[in-house]
Amino acid sequence: MNTLVEMGFENVGWTEDGKERVYVLQNSAYRLNGVGIGKAVDIIQKMGLPDKKPCRIVVLDNNIPQISLFYKPIIGDSVPGVARRDWDVSYSLGRNWKKVGKVKKKNSSLFKVDVVIYPELSLKNLVITQIYQVLFNLAPAIEVSFWKGMRLTAQLEVPIYNDGYPDMYNKIHPGFIGVSQTVRLPYNIWGTLTVGHFSSERYGVDMKISHRFIRDNRFGIEGRVGYTGAAYWDRFTCHFGTQKKMTWSVGGYFYWPQYNVETTMKLEQYLLGEKGVRIDIIRHFRYASIGFYAMKAQGAKSNGGFRFQIALPPYKYRRRGYIPRFTPSRNMGLAYNAGNEQYYYKNYRSSPGDNIMQSNSFNPYFIKSELLVY
User: Fold this and answer.
1) Which of 229, 251, 302, 338 pairs with 114 at a CA distance of 20 to 30 A?
2) What are the phi and psi torsion angles at 354 (to 5°)?
3) pLDDT one-digit tens code per residue, 141-198
């Protein structure tokens, strides 16, 4: 445990009974979860495996359990012969999770402040005399958790370069401001409720729910509902609209482990009230996620494009106690609107870190594939 804390892992704890030993930890030292979890597995294999007894590692995110890694020794095996490939990764937490959840953990993540710098690049190709209109911002955000599953985000948009976007984007103004609460329920169900100011100049309430099937983690269902109104910033004055809009999304999920390909199909209602269907196909790599999407809504022409997300260095970083830690965002990406649709299919994000790469970072099949890469 002390070695894991020295490496930068947070919320580190353990418990043991006659049947298995359980470790719990949160990767706060490595940008890529697959890399960080692999480093923790190496240390536990070297120093912390029980003798002739199964061992489980429960991985947290903001104090909420995500996945676990389970090693069961075979009769005749010796501890030095254990390798990364011998660990099974799944959403199952085992029977002793509740016990380790009550154990006091070392190096708590609560009340520790991260100042995360989000680079934001926007491009438009609407003017015949100009190849692209360009907007580039740096958006530092304070992120802190005060209790289990809670996160406070307060962001500031700092304009760096504007060529063709409205003058209002030349002013420093707030970005994402909100409070979110995440819970994990039985049967592999996660829920996140967020209240605040979102992207696309929206404010209100957003709820996400996802479920991964217990017998086959490759399949799942997802749902989302939001109740928001228009709100834009003029420097530090926010102008609120009184009319609220209901948006929702529900669909299915399939993951192809052999190629780390994620496919989702959703029925959605957008900000203008139009209902449609959306399909995403994403290939996940260690340092990037790349894919395509297609959309069709009532009263609107078909639209689609591609999207990508790339991990940003540094890939390892440390905290110094409760001193605020300054880092760039975990990744940066773009979505290309091939149909040049400007009116329909509008939606929002509820947090600056909500993207295709981050949502896959605790996928057990992806983590398993990362364990096999040294």
Assistant:
1) 229
2) -85, 105
3) 999 999 999 999 999 999 999 998 888 889 999 999 999 999 999 999 999 999 999 9
Supply 163's token pair. Answer: 């060529």
- pTM: predicted TM-score of the whole model, two decimal places: 0.94
The tens digit of pLDDT for each residue in 243-289 reads: 999 999 999 999 999 999 999 999 999 999 999 999 999 999 999 99
Distance between CA 163 and CA 134 in Å, rounded?
5
Give the DSSP letter string of 2-18. HHHHHHT-EEEEEEE-S
Task: Give the integer Cα–Cα distance in Å for 212 and 252.
Answer: 10
Q: Give dist(CA 164, CA 171) in Å, integer.
A: 14
Nearest-CA neighbor of 25 among 1, 46, 49?
Answer: 1
What does DSSP say about strands 55-61 and 21-26: parallel, antiparallel, or unpaired?
parallel
Token readout for 301 is 């022409």
DSSP 320: B
Look at the chain and count its residues. Answer: 374
For 258, the token pair is 């052999």
Neighbours of 58 (CB within 10 A): 24
Nearby residues of 215 by Cβ (< 8 Å), 6 or more positions away: none
The CA angle 65-86-97, to the nearest 5 degrees, is 25
129-147 b/e (C-beta count within 10 Å ≥ 16 → b) = eeeeeebebebbbebbbee
